[in-house]
Amino acid sequence: MIKNQDPQTTERLTRLTLLLVIHAPKHVPLEELTQALNADADTIRHDLNWVSDFLARYGLVVDPSVDQQVAVYGQENYLFRAALDLLKSLSKPHQLVTDLPISDPALETQLEQRLDALLKTIPLDTTAQQSIYDYLWTLAMRYRYGRVKRLGLAELFTPGQLALISNEKGIHPWSQKTIEVLEDSLPGKQDFPLVEAYLLTLRVWLYAN
Predict the structure, then answer these.
(1) pLDDT tens-digit readout, 64-74
(2) Statement: the pTM of the whole predicted model exceeds 0.85
């Protein structure tokens, strides 16, 4: 994903990109980025050129026009795709990677517990487990730090499709419970829209089959 860079630069670029994506479309102060990445402002400004080129592949735009602040704009599904592709590049064969570039021990524990609960319902290989873990991490981070714009249930699914998803007896109750768990950790008592449980069920089903 990030080629021809030394490990330190690769780690910094990965963290910078993820920070901007999970905060989108909010502006992130340059000072906050320098502190989070332990790098000076000139280095961050230089790195933004790479980030801009990388995110352009997903139709996402990096906006540094506000004084000393940076934001990313684009469609929600492309924000997710960019984050998931970056996280996928960190995966290791036959090993579940839970220590991601933006550390949150409490969230990591929650996600591991929810993944363990899912494994009691359906068998999943390590690749599928990693994909689900990465998706849950991205979902939690987007709602915690960014402003998420999702289409509603009626816009994404027909009544028949909703019925099929709801009938996934092993997965859908797990998805609903997982969304409840993630909601409890959101600031300001935010709620996830109902559509997220259905999207999660669908994604788990795709990874499992």
Answers:
(1) 988 899 999 99
(2) yes
